[in-house]
Design brief:
Elements lengths: L4 H8 L17 E7 L2 E6 L6 H21 L6 E6 L28 E8 L7 H14 L4 E5 L7 H4 L8 E3 L2 E3 L1 E3 L2 E5 L14 H13 L6 E7 L6 H9 L4 E6 L3 H16 L4 E12 L5 E2 L6 H9 L3 E8 H8 L14 H25 L14
Parallel strand pairs: 2-3, 4-10, 4-11, 5-9, 5-10, 11-12, 12-14
Antiparallel strand pairs: 1-2, 6-7, 8-9, 12-13
Helix pairs in contact: 1-2, 3-10, 5-6, 7-8
């Protein structure tokens, strides 16, 4: 029985991506496979640009194919394995040149003290709104803050920050963050057609997120807030591999259907070794034009969930006409204005920022992480 294309693909299921730790077939990295007259050819599209990792994958793939050929009783004359552009399907390198050299997995970003992910178990709970307003609140408290829009499939930061009239700037192959409302922000939404759907497999999302992290000139920051896509998919895994996080914030609305998914998100972070700094209850209540509070979704559910999980409750944020209007207009600073109708929203956002800052400091102390994020090493001789 001769070796076939399907046999080659089956053999490649034994080859793992060194960063994602899953086989390259299930990741969709095998772009082409063929065999003709004893000549096997495979083309791969993988996330890593590390030459050593690529060479290892190439050796593993050839070994697997030759083993399958022996099992099929076929004698191979030649096995050719090459790599398609690792950025296929991702935003191109902004200046057309080679990307910056990736940082080591699990490392710190130079000059960034705290890296905080904001995640949710499901969409529609206002995760991006909380991430953005948390960044603005921390900035207004006197901190240097960056915001990375890691919601690869549905970036909303361009709208929330009013970036429509701005163009992405690149200097020396490095993305220059937009500086708006006191926050340095980078979003994939300014690197793609805003009307184009992103139909990407896991490795493509992995590569896009890695590029945003590695090719942005953040400078010195006290906090880098990362707005993650909803759910427990590839991007959080990529983030955990690339960065040493201070911790994660879970966003949840009061009703039970949202809590169920938020619990899964919290447990995902814990399994990835990322401290859960706490839970924010978004849309905790509605402030009407009459000034009264209405519990549209039932109030306090996220706080009870936080107690069950044994993690801090960081506060509740109301939903109001002003918040909706300011978000649509790309003016988050207006959420902190002194208008009488804005008082509860302003106080809630500032309290969440204060709690996040306190929990980040505690998490860093417990982990023994100094400023800059690098873990100290103890050498005993």
């Amino acid at each position: 029985m001769a070796l076939t294309k399907d046999g080659i693909v089956d053999a490649l299921r034994r080859v793992n991506d060194p960063e994602l730790h899953r086989d390259i077939v299930s990741l969709g990295a095998v772009r082409q496979a063929s065999i003709c007259d004893g000549h096997a050819m495979v083309r791969l599209s993988v996330s890593t640009r590390d030459p050593a990792a690529r060479e290892r994958m190439k050796r593993d793939a050839e070994t697997a194919i030759r083993a399958a050929a022996i099992a099929a009783g076929e004698r191979l004359k030649q096995v050719d394995i090459d790599f398609a552009d690792a950025a296929a399907g991702r935003p191109p390198a902004p200046d057309g040149g080679a990307p910056a050299k990736p940082r080591q997995p699990g490392g710190a970003l130079p000059g960034v003290r705290h890296i905080i992910a904001v995640g949710a178990g499901k969409g529609g709970v206002g995760k991006s709104t909380i991430a953005l307003n948390l960044a603005v609140a921390l900035s207004r408290a006197g901190h240097a803050v960056g915001l990375l829009d890691g919601d690869i499939y549905g970036p909303s930061v361009p709208t929330l920050l009013g970036l429509d009239q701005f163009e992405q700037q690149v200097v020396g192959n490095m993305l220059q963050p937009f500086y708006v409302h006191g926050v340095k922000a980078v979003t994939i939404g300014k690197l793609i057609d805003p009307d184009k759907p992103l139909i990407w497999r896991g490795p493509m999302a992995h590569g896009a997120f890695s590029q945003l992290v590695n090719q942005t000139q953040w400078g010195e920051l006290d906090y880098l807030i990362i707005d993650l896509p909803p759910g427990t998919g590839d991007v959080p895994l990529t983030m955990a591999q690339l960065l040493s996080l201070t911790g994660a914030v879970i966003v949840c609305t009061p009703q039970k259907v949202a809590q169920d998914d938020a619990v899964r998100a919290a447990k995902m972070f814990q399994q990835l070794g990322i401290a859960v700094l706490g839970v924010v209850e978004n849309m905790s209540y509605f402030v009407g034009d009459d000034g009264k509070e209405y519990d549209l979704f039932g109030r306090g559910g996220a706080e009870q969930m936080a107690q069950r999980l044994g993690v801090p409750y960081l506060g509740g944020v109301p939903i109001s006409m002003a918040l909706r209007r300011n978000s649509d207009e790309g003016d988050p600073s207006a959420n902190f204005s002194a208008e009488a109708g804005n008082a509860r929203l302003k106080a809630a956002l500032e309290e969440v920022a204060r709690q996040v800052g306190a929990q980040a400091a505690l998490a860093s102390t417990r982990a023994g992480i100094p400023a800059g994020g690098a873990r100290p090493e103890l050498t005993i001789s």
